[in-house]
Design brief:
216 residues; 8 strands; 2 domains; alpha/beta; Rossmann fold; globular; Arc Repressor Mutant, subunit A
Amino acid sequence: MVNNILIVDDHPFLRMGVRTFLEKNFKDINCYETDSVLSTQESLKKANFNFAFVDISLGGEDGLELAGFIKIQQASCKVIVLSMHKEPLLVQKAKELNLDGYLIKEDAFESLKGIIFNPSDTGFILSDKLNDAISVSGKSETTRTLVSKYNSLTHREQTVFRLLAEGSNYKEIAVELGIKQKTVLVHRYNLLKKMELADQTELVKCAIKLGLIDSF
């Protein structure tokens, strides 16, 4: 049986790395590469996929929502996030979208072997480094409220929230996301309002409580 594998990432070297690893370790596979929402949608029209490995940051586009779209369009395809982002709440979002797993790029290759060799395995596939992901039910009422507010943010607002908490300035965020600084300020205003936070200090404290960044 030939496995069709879709690799979605806007960095060509990363796509090439994943493809090279897969073609070296597995026979009877066809790898397809896409780098945007549009190119992915076109590929979905041309082939049925057994596996899709999707980065959540696609040059300003929402890769997580795209992963959910792939799962809706091809329900039998195993759709797995392959990302550098380690936020537990992103893992939670992936589960809510009925995705099949979330892998961190730095330790993904060994996990990829198991996924391809055992395609019938059920359950959510998770990198070992993410096994301590947030369990909302086990948190305090205050933290559950924060999680609920955080989940009300758009994915882009969540990304800006994380980058602000990590100490990135407006210019750095704009460059990373491929947007204007004015747009960053709009996202900041909206997320502070939704989270009911007054300033950067409260934002950082909130991010620590949510497990998005380490405490000092």
